[in-house]
């Protein structure tokens, strides 16, 4: 099973639409390059039950990552300091390497909210790929 060869669609001009488009692009990248990568490497000789359990584990691990990106979990702290993880989605012009739009996913609409739609293949009204 190969990953599909998809191309990035043109980004919306409207700032809010572009922000949503960028979040859907980030969700697609995570599903394709984390979840689908793991599922493709499952041993083909697994029983249907073992395969289903392994796919559930891949889905749960990705959801756990999305909870970190949303700031729900993932901090390590003491009385004076804290360590947390952040992920930035950037739209960059290929010809100039200029950042057209940048979004800290913590400031987005919520990766966990997008997760269930992305799991069903729903990447919004303006999907970021074709």
Which SSEs are present, and which pair or pack?
Layout: H1 15-40, H2 48-69, E1 76-77, E2 82-83, E3 88-92, E4 99-104, H3 111-119
Antiparallel strand pairs: 1-2, 3-4
Describe this structure in words.
This protein is an alpha+beta fold. Helix content is 44%, strand content 12%. It has helices spanning 15-40, 48-69, 111-119, and strands at residues 76-77, 82-83, 88-92, 99-104. The chain is globular, with a radius of gyration of 17 Å. 18% of the residues are buried. The model has no long low-confidence stretch (mean pLDDT 94).
Any key phrases for this structure?
alpha+beta, 3 helices
Question: How is this structure best summarized?
Answer:
By secondary structure, the protein is α+β, with helices and mostly antiparallel strands. It has helices at 15-40, 48-69, 111-119; strands at residues 76-77, 82-83, 88-92, 99-104.
The helix content, as a percent range, equals 40-55%
Structural class: alpha+beta
What is the H/E string? HHEEEEH
Total count of strands: 4
Return residue spans where pLDDT drops below 50 for at least 5 consecutive residues: none
User: Major sheet: size, sense and barrel closure?
Assistant: 2 strands, antiparallel
Shape: globular
Number of helices: 3
Beta fraction of the residues?
5-15%
What does the radius of gyration come to? 17 Å
């Amino acid at each position: 099973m190969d990953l599909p060869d998809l191309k990035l669609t043109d980004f919306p001009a409207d700032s809010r639409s572009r922000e949503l488009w960028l979040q859907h692009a980030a969700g697609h990248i995570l599903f394709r390059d984390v979840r689908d990568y793991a599922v493709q490497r499952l041993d083909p000789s697994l029983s249907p039950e073992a395969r289903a359990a392994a796919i559930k584990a891949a889905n749960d691990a990705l959801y756990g990552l999305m909870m970190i990106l949303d700031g729900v979990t993932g901090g390590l702290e003491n009385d004076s300091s804290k360590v947390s993880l952040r992920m930035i989605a950037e739209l960059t012009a290929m010809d100039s390497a200029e950042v057209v739009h940048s979004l800290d996913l913590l400031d987005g609409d919520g990766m966990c909210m997008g997760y269930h739609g992305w799991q069903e293949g729903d990447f919004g009204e303006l999907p970021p790929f074709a």
